[in-house]
Amino acid sequence: MDCFYAAVHVRDDPSLAGKPVVIGGRPESRGVVAAASYEARRFGIHSAMPSAHARRLCAAVVFVPPDFRRYHQESEKIFAIYREYTPLVQAVSIDEAYLDVTGHLDRFGSATGLAREIRRRVAEERRLTVSVGVGPNRLIAKIASDFQKPDGLTVVPPPRVQAFLDPLPVRRLHGVGPATERVLGELGVETVADLRRQALDLLVARFGKHGRTLFEFARGIDERPVETHSERKSLGTENTYGRDLAGREAVEPELERMAAEVAAALASRDLACCTVTIKVRYGDFTTITRSRTLPAPLRDGRGIAECALELVLRTEALSRPVRLLGVTASNLVHGQAAQLHLFG
To answer: Helix, strand or coil for residue 87?
Structure first.
């Protein structure tokens, strides 16, 4: 979907059309940008930016509080359209999905024809635009979907895959983040074509298993299936405070409250966690995380809170102003888990 959160609000409130719209908290309440319209992005505004900084970049920006229930309801209606064309729909996020349309093309003659039909349906029924990438696998389709935003359709048939990939910056490949891009740069790799010239042995030596993936992605090879069922990998909560937290008497109750929320979320899904992570953002916007992997799975709020406090003691959160706190449970396992006794 194109600029999904902002697009929903602009559709429902035409007075916002053409204006730099930011979804997020207001600057005076120390809010953060959750999403920005294309008009706002032209000023350099992007998600996770402090709202105060967004206003400095564009004095005319219009702040709209987020309405996540509305976004989820809209997403469900859009995904229902997708599933009319194929049962193989993998949600990547609330506004992005992979569709495997193999074997579902009879009515349209081609994947391109089906993509045009989906775009027409979403535009007519939901009055929103979706950009689609059509390719022989997930890698190519994802890259193509970003090519002509907004309201774009980019088709990459198998014979054109290499010509499509070669001139792209290597960071456009799935799994190439800043750290990987930096190491590749040290090898003289800037484009996908540069990466394709690297020997498999060299890439595996530098990146381990990921080196083989890079080798294959540079050649347009991606065997990952579209998966309709995925396991939840983590559950967490975080909060940005209008006034910095100061000292243990302010931080500890917040950790306990968040731990209780996480524990309730785990219990509702019959899950337990093997890893607890805390996130701390100081008043100067420095952000750190600390994690602990537990000797046995955990799901009770008190235990998660104790672990979170232990992790916070490994930071400066009790002696520096804290702007944001977060608690996350990961490495999730099903069922109520308990440590067994070795000697009965």
So the answer is: coil
Note the pTM of the prediction, 2 decimals: 0.71
**Hey, which residues does 328 pair with through a beta bridge?**
236, 277
| Structural domains of the chain ordered from first start | 4-66 (3.40.1170.60), 234-334 (3.30.1490.100)
Angle, vertex CA 323, rays to CA 264 and CA 294, nearest 5: 40
Q: Which residues form the catalytic set?
A: 96
- Residues 155/140, Cβ–Cβ less than 8 Å: no
pLDDT tens readout for residues 202-219: 999 999 989 999 999 999
Positions in the chain whose pLDDT score sits under 50: none
In sequence order, what E strands does 100-171 have?
132-134, 153-155
Q: Among residues 57, 55, 58, 60, which one has the least CA distance to residue 24?
A: 55
Give the tokens for residue 285: 């916007």
CA-based nearest residue to 85, from 108, 54, 58, 55: 108
Residue 22: its H or E element: strand 21-24
pLDDT in tens, 245-293: 999 999 999 999 999 999 988 988 888 999 999 999 998 888 999 999 8
Q: Is 250 exposed, middle or buried (0-12, 13-18, 19+ CB in 10 A)?
A: middle
Residue 284: how many other CB atoms lie within 10 Å: 9
Residue with tokens 């088709």: 155
Strands, sheet with 62-64, edge to edge from the N-terminal-most edge strand: 33-36, 21-24, 62-64
